Amino acid sequence: MAEHHDPHPFEHVMDTKVWEFFSNAFGDKKEIALPGFHIPFGSHTYHFQITKFMILEVVAAILILLIYVPMARRVRTGELPKGRWWNAFESLLTFVRNEIAKPNLGEHDADKYVPYLWTLFLFLLFCNLLGMFPFMGSPTASIWVTGALACISFLMIHGAAAVKMGPVHYIQSMWPHIDVPYVGWFFSLMIFIIEFISTGIKSGVLAVRLFANMFAGHMVLAVILLFIVTAARQPNVWLLGGVSVASVLGVVALSLLELFVAFLQAYIFVFLTALFMGMSLHPEH
Predict the structure, then answer these.
(1) Among 53, 76, 32, 277, residue whose Cα is nearest residue 159
(2) Taking the complete model, does pTM exceed 0.90, yes or no?
(3) Whole-number Cα distances in Å, 26 to 187, 202, 219, 245
(4) Are strands 36-41 and 44-49 parallel, antiparallel or unpaired?
(5) Pairwise pLDDT comparison (263 vs 47), residue with the higher score
(6) Neighbouring residues of 125: CB distance < 8 A, sequence distance ≥ 6
(7) Would you state the pLDDT for residue 96?
(8) Count H helices, E strands: the chain?
(9) CA dihedral 268, 135, 14, 219 (to 10 degrees)
């Protein structure tokens, strides 16, 4: 006899080594075990495990390529945008360039770094939206994924400025000049240390903000759906019907909110990245 256990909401938002298709509440669990590989390296052997979020990140990247590579080829020919599909996806790029990159990076530097902001925005958006589909999930609900993206943004924030001004001049730009006899250097050192630490905190905030919003949203949806599972184990049919209708309506309403949050959080992450890059590129402002 198959062993059953109460479903847990964390199962719906955590990265896993299996791809689950049905919950125990509705019968036997249907799942696919994801492969792992043993990689020999010198005297050690490392285990590389493919997870669900890894596959979803690849799916997001492939979808972006399938949409934008043919679009880029058509744009290169000088063809004007036609149809809702082309205009909708091209409007995302023009929005990031005109409303995020240019105001924060300036006219001169915007076009140089806008490809990174485009890639970051689209990848975040597609990863967020994948969680809206059954049996899928949002990789951005994992702190490891958002942390890795924040680390890349951290490198871009400081790397762009170091390339533009040179590493020495960039470090000097964070060292304020305070004309106070004897102790001016001490105050400058303290401000430099605080400024340097704050650059890491800014990137950490990017990771935590995105992770917390996506994780919490999917957790709420999972908990509401579990109300139906709990009611199904009660003998009262009227209770099951009422809870089911209320839960489904609640999930539909919150799903529309989650759709808005998916766009909003991608925008906030990219906007703050562009803002911090602009602050590094133009320290005089």
Answers:
(1) 277
(2) no
(3) 65, 44, 19, 17
(4) antiparallel
(5) 263
(6) 92, 262, 263, 266
(7) 92
(8) 7, 4
(9) 60
Residue 240, both tokens: 């099951």
Answer positive or negative: Cα dihedral of 7, 8, 9, 14.
negative
Over range 43-62, report the average pLDDT.
87
What whole-number distance in Å separates Cα of residue 20 and Cα of residue 136? 9
Residue 38 burial (10 A CB sphere; 0-12, 13-18, 19+): exposed
Rounded (10°) CA dihedral 250, 253, 259, 265: -70
Rounded Cα gap, residues 56 and 127, in angstroms: 7
DSSP letters for 185-226: HHHHHHHHHHHHHHHHHHHHHHHHHHHHHHHHHHHHHHHHHH
How many CB atoms neighbour CB 240 within 10 A? 16
The DSSP line for 11-76 is GGTS--SEEE-S-GGGSS--EEEPPEEEEEETTEEEEEE--HHHHHHHHHHHHHHHHHHHHHHHHH
